[in-house]
Amino acid sequence: xxxxxxxxxxxxxxxxxxxxxxxxxxxxxxxxxxxxxxxxxxxxxxxxxxxxxxxxxxxxxxxxxxxxxxxxxxxxxxxxxxxxxxxxxxxxxxxxxxxxxxxxxxxxxxxxxxxxxxxxxxxxxxxxxxxxxxxxxxxxxxxxxxxxxxxxxxxxx
Length: 157
Fold this sequence. Notes:
By secondary structure, this protein is of the alpha+beta class. 21% of the residues lie in helices and 46% in strands. The chain is elongated and about 65 Å long.
């Protein structure tokens, strides 16, 4: 079993997401690389939670402030999706961000970490989507919806 703080925090976040109901159903997975197989796995929405870079700084003599960055990635292959379909995926990412925004993490051993902020790495990766206007005049998107957010958790010890 892992004992690294960043891994344990990522596990807790993944469990919290899996225990919540969102506008689009998904199962999150704690991972290191979000390289899902496009043909098999990306047929369904994939959500990954991963430990990112951690930081440490001295804030008073002999006291250390540690923060742990946790990333979330979202991906799904889409084909001839309407703008409203892509909107729903963007809305889900915002919904998850809002859910985690003010939520701290308490590990099994009682250590507490507060969420101190978040940042989009990619709100949505427009380079992975192709826009096509059909003969009917309706715009549809094909490719992969991809989004990534990072959250910073500060040790409260």
